[in-house]
Structures are given as structure tokens and as C-alpha cells.
Amino acid sequence: MKTIQVGKFKSELSSVLEQVQTLRETFVIEFGRKHKKIAMLVPYEEKQKVRKFDQLKGKINIRDDFDDVIEEINEMFYSSKI
User: Fold this and answer.
1) Are the CB atoms for 43 and 68 separated by under 8 Å?
2) pTM metric for this prediction
3) β-strands 2-5, 36-41: how paired?
4) Could you say which of 11, 15, 25, 65 has the lowest number of CB atoms within 10 Å?
5) Is residue 15 assigned to a domain?
6) Contact call for residues 6 and 30 (beta carbons, < 8 A)
7) Quick one: pLDDT at residue 18?
8) Phi/psi at 79 (5° precision)
9) Residue 42 has pLDDT above 90, yes or no
């Protein structure tokens, strides 16, 4: 991890980005005379979300009649006049 002052960071932006991209370098950006750390520039990593199927298997139960048609509900949604 390297530290860099804001002024130097602004003037060498392309070079810093090149180091981040190719060398996977991390930069801490400092500001002012007291070198207050204000930000960190890190390499971007594209993570793919892994989908796990059956992760709730055995933890929940779905009744066999879950998707049965209930006439009372159908009337409420489809038979009423607006």
C-alpha cells in the first residue's frame, strides 16, 4: 500500500491508475499539511454472485395445495367492477 498527496495524485492520475490496474497496487490519498488520510484507491474486482439452489431444502415446507385455485380469492380480484 502506497500513500500519495492529493496534488501529486491529481498530476499523476494516469500513472497511478496504471499501477492500480496492472500491479494491483493500493493507494491511500492524503490531504493537507497534516497528511490526513481521506480516501483509498483499490483495484476493482468483479465478483460473480454464486447462486445456491436448494439452500432452504428441508427448512421450509410448502403444502401440496399451495397453488390450488381458491374461488373466493378469484372473485375478489377478477369479478369485481371498478
Assistant:
1) no
2) 0.55
3) unpaired
4) 65
5) yes
6) yes
7) 96
8) -100, -10
9) yes
Pseudo-torsion of CA 42, 43, 45, 46, nearest 10°? Answer: 110
Per-residue model confidence (pLDDT) at position 73? 84
Structure-block grid coordinates of residue 69:
385455485
Q: Which of 6, 49, 12, 4 is nearest to 31 (CA)?
A: 6
C-alpha cell at 79: 369479478
12: in domain? yes
Range of 10's domain?
2-41
Task: Work out how many domains the chain is built from and give that number.
Answer: 1
**CA 59 – CA 32 distance, rounded (Å):** 56
Type of residue found at 80: S
| CB under 8 A, 24+ apart: contacts of 33-37 | 35/3, 35/5, 37/3
